[in-house]
Design brief:
With about 230 residues, the protein is mainly α. About 60% of the residues lie in helices and about 10% in strands. The chain has a 3-stranded antiparallel beta sheet with strand order 1-2-3, with helices on one face.
Length: about 230
């Protein structure tokens, strides 16, 4: 790991490690062999959920429990964490096996997200709770500055279901049409169908869940278009 890049990372985090081996482990993928970041990731995930939950509770005092849970989930998710990983240039610091490197693992969002959690876990072990809390809040401050509208936090499948129920219509049906690609880069193609009129949408994604959500989002857009037609 480049000492210059490691030093730059610590400056951005606002934290200087006492034990540099903890940071090195947080940036080591299991494909590299030896000590890797998965246990630190576990610790960082638990810490992150608490710190973000506490912050959401403080800045959104009138929110219901469900809205707070959904907001926390939208913040502590792969997309958000991978975005932080890119901002922190973790891909340039990750140690990986040659196979993972050749397949572009250092760019993979799931790996970047895991590494972010591992870094938070490493800060906690190195300096304790308050420094780790400060590091997390510094990274999430822009996202925590403005609570969202509650309806914007509902995922597409939930919003579609609620819209259909409000109109006394049957629930949508989701079907996996195809699944292809290597194990580490699977692509799922999913269809969302409304049984009462046969309208369909299709979407692809890296997981069945993601593809279903995107198909539901497209169906919501189709419903809006038909309502305004």
């Amino acid at each position: 790991m480049s000492q210059d890049l490691a030093a730059a990372l610590q400056r951005v985090l606002g934290y200087q490690f006492n034990d540099g081996s903890l940071l090195a482990r947080a940036l080591t993928h299991r494909s590299a062999g030896g000590a890797h970041y998965e246990r630190l990731e576990f610790l960082g995930d638990a810490l992150l959920n608490f710190v973000i939950g506490e912050a959401a509770y403080a800045v959104w005092p009138k929110a219901a429990e469900g809205d707070l849970s959904r907001w926390r989930s939208s913040l502590v998710c792969e997309d958000t964490l991978a975005g932080l990983g890119k901002q922190l240039h973790l891909g340039e610091l990750l140690r990986m096996g040659s196979g993972e490197l050749k397949s572009g693992g250092y760019r993979r969002e799931s790996i970047l997200a895991d590494a972010v959690e591992a870094v938070f876990g490493a800060v906690y072990l190195d300096g304790g709770f308050e420094p780790a809390r400060a590091v997390i809040l510094r990274q999430f401050e822009p996202l925590l500055s403005q609570p969202p509208e509650p309806d914007s936090l509902k995922d597409s499948k939930t919003r579609l279901q609620e819209a259909l129920q409000a109109a006394s219509r049957p629930l949508p049906e989701y079907t996996v049409l195809s699944e292809h690609g290597p194990p580490h880069r699977r692509v799922f193609q999913v269809r969302c169908r409304l049984p009462d009129n046969g309208h369909e949408t299709q979407a692809g994604g890296a997981s069945r869940k993601q593809a279903e959500q995107d198909a539901a989002r497209l169906m919501i857009e189709k419903l809006k278009e038909n309502a305004h037609a």
